[in-house]
Amino acid sequence: RSVSGNPDLVQATIDGLDLRWETFPGDGDVLAVSAFYKKIDKPIERIIQPTTDFRQSFVNAASATLWGLELELRRSLGGLSPVLDRWSVSANLAHIRSSVEVGLQQLSVVASSDRPLEGQSDDIANLALQFYQPEWGTMVRFLGAYTGERLTDVGAFGIPDVYESAATTFDAVLSQSRGPWVRGV
Known about the structure:
Layout: E1 13-23, E2 30-41, E3 44-48, E4 56-60, E5 63-76, E6 87-101, E7 123-133, E8 138-147, E9 150-153, E10 162-164, E11 167-176
Antiparallel strand pairs: 1-2, 2-5, 3-4, 5-6, 6-7, 7-8, 8-11, 9-10
């Protein structure tokens, strides 16, 4: 798909309010709850133009509002057993609501005026299990992530909005630092 720029775009500005409660129950451990509200003036959104290749471009909406909650946990597993001393788990879950106010000049162009902000999922979750051996410089991390359905392209000129389905991904990361036994160049 081709992309066309828009010289009429203006920079978006964001006003936000964040409230966070957190506690640190152990060394490196975190438990946190956050609430947030954001007002975006002139957010930039990707649209689809009615060309033979459904070209993408970008426009400013009038404004957008986001609000939500996030839960976060990071915990060493060493408290369960000394064998698990080098293992930790971390997780976060965010539930976000968004809405866009379409400008009067766009009402006749865009496919829908009552919709979420382009690119914003309602639900996002991450889970990680990590092993870290500092003496060896070795870190192994197993990651799982969930991203809820999201609007990826705002429809325009009779073309409907395009949504990406919810997705879950799994990854593994191995990181090895150079130890004292490896001579650098």
